[in-house]
User: Fold this.
Amino acid sequence: MRFKFFFASLSILFIYFDAQGQNIQNIGVPYVENYVKSTYQAGNQNWAITQDEYGIFYFGNSEGLLSFDGKFWQTHQIPHHLIVRSVAADKKGKIYTGGYGEFGYWSYDSKAILRYHSLTALVKDQTKLNNEIWKIYIDGDRVIFQSFANIFIYKNNTIDIVEGSESFLFLFKVGKRFFVEGSGKGLYELKGNKLEFIDESAKAGVIGVLSILPYGDHSYLIGTAKNGLFLYDGIKFTRWNSEANDFLKRYQLNNGTKIFDKYYAYGTILNGVVILDEQGDIIQHIDKLSGLQNNTVLSLFTDNSQNLWTGLDNGIDRVELNSPLYFYFDKNGAFGTVYSSIIFKNKIYIGTNQGLYYSDWDVERAKRQSFNFKFIPNSQGQVWDLSVYDGNLICGHNNGTYLVKEGIIQKISTISGGWTIKRMNMHPDKLIQGTYTGLVVYTRVNGVYTFSHKVEGFREPSRYVEQDNKGNIWVSHPYKGIFKLNLSNDLKSVKSSKIYDEKSGLATTYSTNIFNLDGKIVFTSDSGFYNYDEISDRFTKYQQLNSKLGTFVSSNKLIQADDKRYWFIDHGKVALANFIQPGKITIDSSLFSVLNGRMVQDYENISKINNNLFLISVDDGFVIFNKDNTIKVSKKLPKVFIGRIENIAANNFVITESGSLSRDVNIKYAQNSIRINYSLPYYRQGKIKYQYFLDGYSKNWSAGSYLAQKDFTNLPYGDYNFKVRALVNDGTISDISSFQFTIEPPFYFTVWAWIIYTILFIVSLYYLRTFYFKNLKRHQQELALKLQQERDEHLKQESFNNEQKLIKLKNEKLQTEVESKSREVANSAMNIVYKNELLQNIKSEIAQLKDVQGKTLSLEQLKKLNKIIDEGMNDERDWNLFETSFNETHENFFKKLKIGHPDLVPNDLKLCAYLRMNMSSKEMASLLNISVRGVEIRRYRLRKKLDLPHDKNLNEFLIEL
Assistant:
């Protein structure tokens, strides 16, 4: 599974930097990259380091096996969560580890998950497994594990045990030879499975051996815990008396490794790392003050790129020995913030916000150069500028300007704020200086520059000053814009002055600066570089330059490096631009990315020491840039390593730990959202961008991104090929790495699903046909039934219509009968009224009757007649006849009245009936044989009995009843 990728990544086994002739600088310290515990998320202590064939690092950590691919960290735990004391990669896909009573190897399984395989079961005598495994070496087809009690040799799936007469210290592999110390006795050489004692070692006092490294062609450099360094030529041992001996004895040598085939790095218990050359001189000392996280070095390792890796008692550090940048930091804050620095007459001068400091400088010295900066008396205050002209070191200071000589200063100007000083083009014996309050001119007299005069007529603060080829003086004001000054012939006053602002073509007047670029005055701003056009007297964008500067188009400062190279500084970011080829500009910013944010913004300073060395001021010290130490990156970069593939759906689990090593990866459709992690095993400062392309999903390569992972969500099912490549420093491109995987179709698109779909389709057709004919028959039956129902409904409707007509006729007949009865009742009532009126009239007439003699009838006769008439008027037969007719017409009228009002008397019922018939009071009086007034009284009483409200009409109430 892994062989294809293995052969494709063989280039990682070779150093892909041209390190031949590489030298470690003796000034400052190299760049140190710290990997803190919170970054790698494991234990403090790191006991061993190795690198596999893919460029991946593995660390024996106090919490297990820790891996690092240049971007991501992972921790793998061995059985019982033991501390991993030793680790070694066999470059064939296995990582061997050892701990207390446990050793074995890690390898990727079929799903590219790193799994541990213990080898301790192969040890026949398990009592031998009671010690830590401190060293592991790969020796051809065998692997050697060493504890303080035994040496285990693993070969052909068997383990042989080598025992000594005493306990061991540490086993060392040097070339093809193995050496181990018998504790306190001397050195043994392991030959095959046998130990051979080296007599001379005991005699020479070679005890407490903690490092053995190759020295020269056939010798060995042996480092001991207390007795210093020894050389062994294969026959005899001799003490290597060197500068480093006392240092290593004092700070307890703990381990060592060889660098660049000519340097020796030793880790100590008490004082970090020391690097020696072949003469034994200390070239470098790297400790906590100079960048290490901890001074106790538990392990050292030199990688394929000649980086020095340190496993510390608390953390991991990478020391970039092959970097052209070496640092000197003022960790104790002795001299404050650095604004300028320069080398002059074998002295280094540092101008800070506290004053001027100096120390000895000897770049030709082979040994490590140390500094002892001293304060120059009377220089306290802000130093702005240090410049050398004609053998004069001139210091621009907040309090004036000084000449500096051998640790003393001499004030030559009292004009405050010496910002910048430049030689005048047409007056080579004169210098012009920009200050807080205008311009100052200095003249060389007998080889020494002295104050001449202040230029009259211009008092603006002058941070940057340049002179063009016509003698005009250009001055930038921090807020107002650009001034062009024309001085008088004696340079003492300003003949003419003009200020340029936005109206003259500038983008802004704020922070527009002036510099000389290859003999031409250019103007910088946040929106790019500008030219001055003398004919139009305006500024235009310098497009030829802007188009080639990339992100450094907004540089705020330019400093000349040499004839055709310039430093471009963009608000703290540094790049070196090369103008050697006409019409072409090459910019290198990756080498200087570690300086980003470390320089004092707007007061950045870089001075040239010689053709190869440059001194770069940073806020808490300085940096030495050695052009000769610039390593050319080979066009052959390592391939991008595709690491963990994670599902980012609901469960968020690991699909594989290495996409580069996995094969036949099938991902369920329900888990079709994945995250792919990748990294370039490139362990140097530089800009690394990644481009990816998902074949089967994307159409083009993505734009370059610093992100080292990509998420794909809701991928459709199908086959995919994820491709990724790296772009280093916007130039070199790595080979393409790929990861092939398949998103399985959802269950409803699998082969079995299609078989089921086919069966279901056939069954569905059968049932559909059966259902169709059954439904057709049912539909026919329903139609017949519907027709029958419609016929029955029609007949029923006809019968209903006939019944309705019959009912209507009956109703009409009944209505006619009712109306007839009503008329009969009315007629009967009216007849009674007429009868009563007639009888009343007769009664009245009888009262007026007289006999022949003219006399009225006797009272007795009248009473008799009146009685007869009254009986006729109150004849119950009339009422009974009326009541019968009324009830036939107005059914249940009297019944409802009696139920609702049981206190009604017969006369009340009669009155109600007459009122229902809407008779007049007169007619009712006749029927009741009472007066009209009596009718009104009865009506009143009836309303009370019926309990009618005042607004309710009595007649309406009775009609509605």
In short: The first strand starts at residue 29 and ends at 35.
